[in-house]
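Researcher: Please generate the 3D structure of the following complex. Treat every line as part of one assembly.
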Amino acid sequence: MFDKEKWQEIFSSLKNNKMRTTLTVFGVFWGIFMLIIMLGLGMGFKSMIQEGFGDFATNSLLIWPQQTTKAYKGFPRNRRYMFTNEDVQIIKERFPEIEFIAPKLRAFGSEGANNATRGTKTGAFSVEGTFPEYNLIDPSKIISGRFVNNVDIKEYKKVAVIGKYVKDVLFEKDENPIGEYIKINGIYFKVVGVLTKGASNISLGSDKDRSIVIPLTTFQKVYNRGNEVGFCAVTAVKEANIALVQQKINTFLRSRHSIAPDDEQAVGGFNLAKEFKKIFKMITGIGILIWIVGIATLLAGVIGVSNIMLVVVKERTKEIGIQRALGATPFKIMNNIITEAIFLTASSGYVGIVLGVGVIELIKMIANSTGSDNPFFTHAGVNLNVALLALFILVIFGVFAGFIPAKRAISIKPIDALRDE
Amino acid sequence: MYRLFRNNSLYSIINLFMIELKGLHKSYITGNNKLHVLKGLDLIIEQGELVSVMGSSGSGKSTLLNVLGILDSYDEGYYKLNNTLMSNLTEKKAAHYRNNMIGFVFQSFNLISFKNAMENVALPLYYQGVSRKKRNQIALEYLDRMGLKEWADHMPNELSGGQMQRVAIARSMISKPKVILADEPTGALDSTTSLEVMDLFREINSSGITIIIVTHEKDISEKTDRIIYLKDGIIESEFISPRKVSETVGAYRN
Ligand SMILES: Nc1ncnc2c1ncn2[C@@H]1O[C@H](COP(=O)(O)OP(=O)(O)O)[C@@H](O)[C@H]1O
Ligand SMILES: [Mg+2]
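Model: Done. Output below.
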């Protein structure tokens, strides 16, 4: 590869036409530069989306009771029913695919009326009864204290975990709310924790900062809801097909609540895994699009190189004739021209990659130094493999760029090449 | 006289023909026109001969030389180089013969402009895969023989015509070819330099290399041993050059 005669030839033809060389290689440079920038920002975009998901359990499902749409076993259609604690218990025991199931019940301050007070401070918040597992499916960040636990559930404890905003409304700025009491719909609850939204931008139901979470059993008792459950969040173990789990649960619930087996509407459901998949598919699609656009831009640059190599070959016809008269084989001639094309594409492409990565790193640096927490910028980046892949593609393209001119060069008879002026 | 010379030649006894042409035809086809340039040449050149090909412009001298140099193909008859038939060669094979068997010297020198004198001379060895160090060393030796050692790292555009042609001659010799083909090698040189170059060719020839020189200048051809006259694509006549005659006769006298 390191062969002075060859490189001499390459550099002489580049030197003789600096402007032309510059313009030509700019095409390749620009193609790869844009590809790298797009890939870098694409990575940022992906991180942004992924970080948005945060620690939310992606293999999860929400189900809730709706009205029946079919008459069945003597019951009329449009019947309302509720899930029960027993439903939850049995589902949990019956389906090993289920990792967690967290039932929930919710009440709002009716028509925005204040439902929580502490001394003279008062506010209207969403009150939710739930299980400890809920925090594993749709995690909140516990700022201080703790979440609802199993003892709370079992002993119907009147404890509350309050959102950050709730704390700001009901407590003084530097007051520690843990261990203090607040009144919810006239009943005293001891504050055991303060929470805020978790790492995920996805949140089910109401704003976590503006909610008060209490044990589900306590909720059922104080609001007189018997053993009713409003909805359930379910996560399946990693290997399980969540759609299948959903079907099984629905079938089970329909038979338990005397609902027609084909009444699909009676049990409401939302398959989060499906939604996540859609988004991931979109990200993948964007990634593919970036490569297509990038490669096409690159291809335009490479065609430029190929064209210029054709011109170079034409200009060098006589020289090639001389070389062949001196015994250069066609292989040697082709080899030189293809090497030159590879050199042109790879070197200009290399500059494009380096500058592209440089710009991405700069964006990252600026984003970080200005304290931006937008992962689109802070997590933009090009990994080494992608850069190497791009370089590899350039070399392949270089071969293609050189091939046609090289073929042209040796298609001329030596004598005709020598006669060329 | 000619016959006498042939019979006295050692080579003719063991049939060491360097070049053998039989009924060689060559036409150029341009569009619908066919130009019949070589019309059945029979020619034998033995190893170690110094031959010139004369003829008026357009008589087909260069065409003949190009066929001999495997730079161009022919249509009919045959061409044997060193007893090997030169026809239907792959370009790779042709390159091999050009590299190992033939040295070219052109009227316009045809040096590579971005290589210095030494690198130009070394180029044929590059195609043989000789290492850079070794081929440059050999090139220097050849330049030395041409009296151009001090010019080794000069670029062609820094050399005079005579110097360039001597570089080209060194280049034609470096691969130790069997035949050197020179097409009007003195055509671009003044008469003094021309004669110097011809002396060089004579010297090279004395080492046993067969040399064929195309020229239309009489005094150039007279520096060779044998003169072939081409006219309208056929060999009109051929002579032993006067100097060769006197040399040979002189040899008999002694
Ligand atoms: N490549 C070619 N195509 C067509 N005609 C050619 C070509 N080369 C030479 N000729 C013609 O062939 C004839 C012989 O040319 P050439 O061998 O160069 O003559 P010389 O060298 O004796 O002057 C001339 O008429 C010339 O015009
Ligand atoms: Mg001629």
